[in-house]
C-alpha cells in the first residue's frame, strides 16, 4: 500500500538544496555594501567593495566603479573587513541566522524521514489543516517536525543516527512485525526500526488502524470502506480513492474537492497521485504546451484540454511562479507565503562544505554541516564515517 498527498493541484514550492563554498579566510564577513554603482565616482584606485544591492563585486578604476564580477542567485556579495577597510569581496549565500535549529534539523533530516528545508520551515499548521481537510490524508513524516523541538536537547548531543533515533523512540510497537498502531488520534509508526509517535489531530485528522497481510498499520486519514481497490468514485464533491490496504480490508481516502471550489472528476485516472478534482473551466488549452501561471493569487493549469483555475487564498497560500536558473517561468503553484520561487544557480570550483536551502521569508541561506559535527556529502549533512542512516 502506498499513501500519497492525493492533491496534485497543490504544487507547493519545495526548497532546493545545493552546494556553496566555505567562506574561508580570516576577518569578519559583513553583509554590507561599501562599493558604488558601476560608473559612479569612487575615491581610491583599486578600492573594492560590493555593489548596491549586493548583486556583485566592484573595483575602483580610473576614479569610477567598475564590475569585478556578478553574483549568481541566490548568492549575494559580502565584504570582509579589517577595521573600515574592505580586504576581500565574495559571492556567497549568507549563513542562516537560525543556527541551533539548523543543527537539530541537519541530524533529524538525515536520520529520520523528511527534508532539511521542511524541518527548518514546516508548513504552518493552519495551512496544513486546510490542505488535509481537502486531501483527507497526512504522512507521518510531515507531522514529525511539528514536535521535533521536544527532542531538541537529546538530538543535540547525538553523535550518530542510532542516537538520533533513540531520542524519538516512543510506544511499544514491534517494528519487526508491525508498521503502525493508533491510540486515539495518536499514531505510532516505524521510523526505520524505531517506533515514533505523532498526533493526527494536529492537522484535523483521525488515526485509522488497519490490519493487513504485513501486520498492523495506521494512517492519519479521513476514510470510508470500499470494495474495489485502485478505483475512484464520486460522492457529491468528494472523490473517494479506494486503496488496497492489505489482504483483509480496503479503505477509501476522501478528497473534498468542494473545499477548493471543485467537483469530483468521475473521469480521473487512478494513480499514485490522482488529479481527482475537476475545477471550473476557463477555456481551451494545449496540455503539451501550456505553462501553468499565476493571475494575482489564482493559479491556472491545463487539464484535459481545459484551463482550470484554483484560488490559492482558500488554502491560506499564495500563487507563486516557479523560475529556472535563467529567471524564465517554468510553471506555477500554490505555495506557503515566503517560499523561494527561483532555482538556486550558485556554483563553485572550491570544495563544497555547506548546503543551501530556502530559509522561509529570509530567502536562501546556507548551513555549514561542521557546526553539527557532520560532513556534507553533496546532498545533505551526514555523520563522519557513515554511508547511510
Descriptive account of the structure:
- The chain has 389 residues and is mainly beta.
- Helices cover 12% and strands 37% of the residues.
- The chain is built from 6 helices and 29 strands.
- It has a 4-stranded antiparallel sheet, with helices on one face. Strands 20-23-22-21 form a 4-stranded antiparallel sheet, with no helix packed on it. It has a 3-stranded antiparallel sheet with strand order 1-26-27, with no helix packed on it.
- A hairpin with a 2-residue loop joins strand 22 (298-303) and strand 23 (306-311).
- Helix 1 packs across helix 6 (161-167).
Task: Explain briefly what this protein structure is.
With 389 residues, the chain is mostly beta strands. It has helices at 99-111, 116-120, 125-135, 140-144, 152-157, 161-167, and strands at 18-21, 28-30, 48-50, 56-61, 64-70, 76-82, 85-92, 137-138, 180-183, 186-191, 194-199, 207-212, 215-221, 223-225, 231-235, 238-244, 250-256, 263-264, 277-278, 281-284, 293-295, 298-303, 306-311, 318-323, 329-335, 352-358, 364-368, 375-376, 381-382. The model is unreliable at 1-30 and 346-351 (pLDDT under 50).
Amino acid at each position: 500500500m502506498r499513501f500519497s498527498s492525493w492533491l496534485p493541484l497543490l504544487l507547493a514550492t519545495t526548497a532546493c538544496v545545493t552546494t556553496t563554498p566555505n567562506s574561508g579566510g580570516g576577518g569578519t564577513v559583513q553583509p554590507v555594501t561599501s562599493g558604488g554603482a558601476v560608473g559612479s565616482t569612487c575615491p581610491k584606485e583599486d578600492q573594492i567593495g560590493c555593489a548596491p544591492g549586493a548583486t556583485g563585486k566592484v573595483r575602483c578604476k580610473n576614479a569610477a566603479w567598475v564590475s569585478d564580477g556578478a553574483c549568481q542567485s541566490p548568492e549575494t556579495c559580502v565584504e570582509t573587513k579589517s577595521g573600515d577597510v574592505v580586504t576581500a569581496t565574495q559571492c556567497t549565500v549568507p549563513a542562516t541566522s537560525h543556527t541551533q535549529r539548523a543543527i537539530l534539523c541537519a541530524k533529524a533530516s538525515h536520520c529520520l524521514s523528511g527534508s532539511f528545508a521542511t524541518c527548518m520551515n514546516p508548513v504552518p499548521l493552519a495551512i496544513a489543516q486546510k490542505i488535509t481537510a481537502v486531501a483527507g490524508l497526512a504522512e507521518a513524516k510531515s507531522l514529525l517536525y511539528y514536535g521535533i523541538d521536544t527532542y531538541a536537547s537529546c538530538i543535540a548531543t547525538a553523535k550518530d543516527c542510532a542516537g538520533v533515533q533513540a531520542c524519538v523512540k516512543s510506544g511499544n510497537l514491534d517494528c519487526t512485525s508491525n508498521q503502525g498502531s493508533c491510540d486515539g488520534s495518536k499514531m505510532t509508526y516505524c521510523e526505520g526500526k524505531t517506533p515514533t509517535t505523532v498526533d493526527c489531530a494536529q492537522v484535523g485528522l483521525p488515526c485509522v488502524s488497519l490490519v493487513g497481510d504485513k501486520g498492523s498499520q495506521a494512517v492519519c486519514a479521513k476514510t470510508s470502506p470500499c470494495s474495489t481497490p485502485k478505483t475512484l468514485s464520486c460522492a457529491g464533491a468528494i472523490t473517494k480513492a479506494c486503496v488496497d490496504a492489505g489482504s483483509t480490508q480496503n479503505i477509501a481516502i476522501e478528497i473534498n474537492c468542494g473545499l477548493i471550489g471543485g467537483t469530483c472528476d468521475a473521469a480521473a485516472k487512478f494513480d499514485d497521485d490522482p488529479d481527482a478534482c475537476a475545477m471550473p473551466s476557463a477555456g481551451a488549452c494545449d496540455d503539451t504546451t501550456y505553462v501553468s501561471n499565476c493571475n494575482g493569487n489564482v493559479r491556472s493549469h491545463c487539464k484535459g484540454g481545459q484551463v482550470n483555475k484554483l484560488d490559492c487564498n482558500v488554502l491560506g497560500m499564495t500563487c507563486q511562479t516557479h523560475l529556472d536558473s535563467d529567471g524564465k517561468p517554468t510553471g506555477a503553484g500554490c505555495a506557503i507565503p515566503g517560499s523561494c520561487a527561483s532555482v538556486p544557480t550558485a556554483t563553485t570550483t572550491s570544495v563544497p562544505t555547506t548546503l543551501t536551502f530556502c530559509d522561509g521569508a529570509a530567502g536562501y541561506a546556507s548551513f555549514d554541516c561542521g557546526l553539527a559535527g557532520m560532513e556534507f556529502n553533496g546532498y545533505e549533512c551526514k555523520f563522519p564515517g557513515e554511508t547511510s542512516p
